[in-house]
Amino acid sequence: MALIEEFLSEIDRRWKPAGPTKIKLDVIGSGALMLQTNYARRTKDSDVLETRILEEKNIRDALMALAGKGSDLHKHYGIYLDIVQSSLPFLPHSPLFHSIKTLEKLRHFEIRALDIADVVVSKLHRFNANDRSDIREMIQQNRISHQRLIERFRLAVDQFEMDARAEDLPKYIENLHAVEQTYFNVPKTPIELPGWLGEG
């Protein structure tokens, strides 16, 4: 069992039941890649996309006490849980999540991982060294095609272009083009933007 799966299983084992319904944890970032592939880059955290039920303060606070930064589980596994506001990641309006079969027997949690293509799209936001490493590895493992990347990227652009975050889109497009040329070895794909932003 991968380290991140051990970490999530231990959270489930220690969780004090809060109700009859499983709590849905949607894992994003590099944690989602490790849950769906044999990729094993060490990460400092396992980001969780905040969902309706995680907005309940008692559940959120209990999770942070059990598995957040500085918790006993963090010290033991070198991983901590971080809850991310759903409005923050650069993602399509309807991001795709997949259930993790190896964790289906958990008693208290339903673990889902963000689709690999959507993880790659989200990493075009910060695009730091770890993000570039994650993207390169997914492409080298043939986990994402160029066509799929462009399809999901355009849907994320559609989601962002109507609010204040639109001004950041040219930078995301620049990062996309770097991925296309460096890792896919293909020409840059033109991306349409609102008139006041121009074309990427």
Protein traits:
200 residues; alpha/beta; 2 domains; five-stranded mixed sheet; 12% strand; globular
Main β-sheet, in a few words?
5 strands, mixed
Q: How many DSSP-defined strands?
A: 5
Helix percent band: 40-55%
**Number of helical segments with 4 or more residues:** 8
Regarding quaternary structure, what we see is: single chain
Q: How are strands sequenced across the largest beta sheet? A: 3-2-1-5-4
Order of helices and strands: HEHEHHEEEHHHH
Rounded to the nearest angstrom, the radius of gyration is 18 Å
Task: State the distance separating the first and last CA atoms.
Answer: 42 Å
Unreliable parts? none
- Calculate the mean pLDDT score and round it: 90
Brief characterization of the structure:
This protein has eight helices and five strands. By secondary structure, the chain is of the alpha/beta class.
Word description of this protein:
- By secondary structure, the protein is α/β, with parallel strands linked by helices.
- The chain has two domains: 3-115, no CATH class; 119-184, no CATH class.
- Helices cover 44% and strands 12% of the residues.
- The protein has eight helices and five strands, in the order H-E-H-E-H-H-E-E-E-H-H-H-H.
- The protein has a five-stranded mixed sheet.
- It is globular and about 50 Å long.
